Amino acid sequence: MNIGVFFGSRSPEHEVSIITGELIISELKKLGHSVVPVYIDKGGRWFMSEELGALKFFTSGPVRAGGGIEKREKYGKVYLDIEASNGKLVFKKKGFGGKEYIVDFAFPAFHGRNGEDGTIQGLFEIFNVPYVGCDVASSAITMDKVLTKLLCERFGIPTADFIYFDSSEWDAKKSGLLDNAEKKLVWPMFVKPARLGSSIGITKTKDRKELEFAIEVALKYDDKVLVEKGVENLADITCCVMDGKNPKASLIQEAVFGSDLFSYEDKYLEDGGAQLGNAKQKLVIPAEIGTELTEKIRGLSVEVFKKFGCSGIARVDFLLDRKSGKYYVSEINTLPGTLYHHLWKASGVEIGTLIKELIKTAEEKHQKKERLINSFESDLLKFAGSIKLRTHLEDNSKPRS
Questions:
Q1: Which residue in 7, 91, 138, 386 has the fewest CB atoms around it within 10 Å?
Q2: Alpha carbons 67 and 161: distance in angstroms, whole number
Q3: Using CA atoms, how far apart are residues 309 and 297, in angstroms rounded to an integer?
Q4: DSSP assignment, residue 286?
Q5: Could you tell me the end-to-end alpha-carbon distance of the chain, in angstroms, rounded to an integer?
Q6: To the nearest 5 percent, what fractions of the chain are helix, strand and coil?
Q7: Lowest mean pLDDT, pick from 1-5, 64-68, 80-84, 388-392
Q8: Which residues on adjacent β-strands are paired with residue 48?
Q9: CA-to-CA distance for 109 and 313, rounded, in angstroms?
Q10: What is the pTM of this model?
Q11: How far apart are CA 399 and CA 85, in angstroms?
């Protein structure tokens, strides 16, 4: 089968997605798969070419991460053949004799909006294409930090105190929202765009002035903002979960950082990036939090994975108060950067095995879905011509005064 790896897209996490996508492409080729690289640029344009399946193409070739594509006619101008796409995606290059690309199985490698949030999963569902990872609903819910925390409260899962609001509320009653934050929460407070990752737009605030400024910054990235109580004696810990008959939790990782939070620079830039598994001095695996607490957090990670309807792979982030031992679910990431292969490797699962398991799970999920009944025989349309129904439809079609 041809596996399409989808990466890039219109998201502030575009560059991170390129790295994840190219890693997956490389590993799939090592496993002997036929791979179709599908790159979506920051403007939402789709490009397909074997040449897009190498990271050097984006770092030293005609494409620059964040830049444009030279000679677009060579890499782009593809369109989705809707008529031919059923159980597969058929892309064709424009022009006489244009090349055809067929995707039998999808491996999304997006981070953030327009990909990780359920949008691309919806496309796969419409055309009945099997794909790796969480479905539309779980992707959309977990992308939203506010919805995630509201559901955590509903499920009785510990999460730090918070408030939230959107840009229209902020414009209408800014002072009241600031008052509410000071009333319900305590300093320090963290301000986060509700639907963004990689620590982009997140700010730690210590007073009202900083809070107001941080909210203004967050609203540049998202229309909805989360203000969250800071956890004292903080340890930033993470656990990954992989799907199967019995979902499996990884070891616990603690991120070591010197600033107010585990920043974008810590995650991806300094010393090769902790989230990419390179800045090993910034990671402690397994986290030194004691056996009992470790097993509680691993168990809760699997519970979160199940309750939120995740599949394939997900990463659950926690905030731990080292002094009190209390821990809080911070967020759920349905596509961890580079599949968090470094944490799985430390847990005894090599990346090749991880990818094989993700493909296997996706195929099983698709087969299970195929067994569902998608049609229902009914005489409803026989009544469409009835006088009563026809009169009702005609009445509704008349222009209103």
A1: 386
A2: 40
A3: 18
A4: S
A5: 58
A6: 40, 20, 35
A7: 64-68
A8: 38
A9: 12
A10: 0.87
A11: 39
The CATH architecture that domain 161-229 belongs to is 2-Layer Sandwich (3.30)
Residues forming CATH 3.40.50.20 domain(s) in the chain: 2-131
Q: How confident is the model at residue 73 (pLDDT cuts 50, 70, 90)?
A: low
Q: Is the per-residue pLDDT at 244 higher than 50?
A: yes
Options 1.20.1300.10, 3.30.470.20, 3.10.20.340, 1.10.443.10; CATH for 234-369 is 3.30.470.20
**Does domain 2-131 fall into CATH 3.40.630.10?**
no
- What pLDDT is attached to residue 392? 62
Angle at 311 between CA 310 and CA 314, to 5 degrees: 70
Give φ, ψ of 231 to 5 degrees. Answer: -95, 130
> Is pLDDT at 312 greater than 80 in this prediction?
yes
Paired tokens of 137: 């609903």
Numbered ranges of CATH 3.30.1490.20 in the chain: 161-229
- Sequence ranges of the chain with CATH classification 3.30.470.20: 234-369
DSSP secondary structure, 47-66, as one string? EE-GGGGSHHHHHTSSB-TT
- The pLDDT, as a whole number, for residue 13 is 87
Contacts with 156 (C-beta within 8 Å, 6 or more apart), sequence order = none
Task: Please state, in angstroms and rounded to a whole number, the distance separating the CA atoms of residues 168 and 39.
Answer: 34
5 Rama class: left (phi>0) / alpha (psi -120 to 50) / beta: beta
Chain CA centroid to CA 154, Å = 22
Burial code of 356-367, b = ≥16 C-beta within 10 A, e = fewer?
Answer: ebbbebbeebbe
